[in-house]
Design brief:
Number of strands: 4
Number of helices: 10
Structural class: mainly alpha
Mean pLDDT: 89
Strand order of the largest sheet: 1-2
Low-confidence stretches: none
Distance between the termini: 48 Å
Largest sheet: 2 strands, antiparallel
């Protein structure tokens, strides 16, 4: 049973990495379709677990629609730099609040609060990726470059691998026992070492960033990604569930796979802007 589960996790893990890598590298359309799908499915899952926990009432379709509109708004803004790109999404937010006037649900505050939490916590990080992939080419047109999102996910995968390997072998000191009893400081530093090594190796092949910049990015990903993992663990512990879903065989749900990314992406965007790397 353990062997079969390990094989399943390995195969689905390989397919997952291939899908993310291929979607980012192929072109802007594949990037767009991939992360709209991830955003919509993740927000849908977030809404589902909150409904099952009795925290709010049905909001699957509303939340998923909001996630898609938010992503497309950032796509338009990254090309036009015009705030009007957010006009449709802003009107949709007003619609969500006005609609509660007519639902007579008795949970208006909870419904609206958790809708906005899903948009900010789940959908916004994926939408922010648009800010890292569109740049102006030498002839004045806009060009797609998936280097930054790819590096974010590579650093996340290296961090997860290093934390698991080192934590399993040497983990003794608990990182945050109240929230995640299995995580250790040894695993944290092991994951950081793997990611930093990945930053150094990447700098040998990527001309657009130097070694210090990529190592800085890797450290940012490790710190924020770890907090994202702990945050989702806190939510699951409060709700009383082990996995956020079962959409990825052997790996749990969408939130389980992207919890680190949902903190790491905004942190990297801030890091890039604050260090003038854009």
């Amino acid at each position: 049973m353990i062997k079969n589960n390990f094989i399943l996790r390995t195969l689905t893990g390989i397919l997952f990495v291939a899908l993310i890598t291929g979607g980012i590298l192929w072109n802007h359309i594949s990037f767009l379709l991939l992360f709209i799908a991830i955003s919509v499915l993740s927000v849908w899952e977030f809404a589902r677990i909150m409904i099952k926990a009795g925290k709010c009432q049905a909001m699957h379709r509303t939340s998923a629609t909001g996630a898609a509109l938010l992503f497309l708004s950032f796509t338009m803004y990254s090309v036009t730099y015009m705030p009007v790109a957010f006009s449709v999404y802003t009107l949709f937010l007003l619609y969500v609040m006005i609609a509660e006037l007519y639902r007579k649900s008795g949970k208006a505050i909870e419904n609206i609060a958790l809708f906005f939490m899903g948009q900010v916590y789940v959908a916004l990080p994926f939408a922010l990726l648009n800010m890292s992939v569109i740049g102006e080419s030498t002839n004045g047109t806009f060009a797609y470059d998936g280097t930054i999102p790819l590096m974010i996910f590579i650093f996340l995968w290296l961090n997860d691998t290093g934390a698991y390997c080192i934590g399993t072998l040497f983990g003794k000191h608990r990182l945050f026992e109240r929230i995640s009893p299995k995580k250790s400081w040894e695993g944290f530093f092991g994951g950081a070492a793997f990611a930093i090594a990945g930053g150094y190796v990447s700098s040998l092949f990527i001309d657009s960033f130097n070694t210090a910049q990529l190592i800085g990015m890797s450290v940012t990903v490790v710190a924020a990604g770890t907090l994202g993992d702990l945050f989702e663990s806190m939510l699951k512990r409060e709700i009383g569930i082990k996995d956020s879903g079962e959409i990825i065989p052997g790996h749990g749900g969408m939130l389980d796979r992207f919890d680190s990314a949902m903190f790491a992406i905004p942190a990297v965007i801030i890091y890039l802007y604050s260090t003038n790397m854009f």
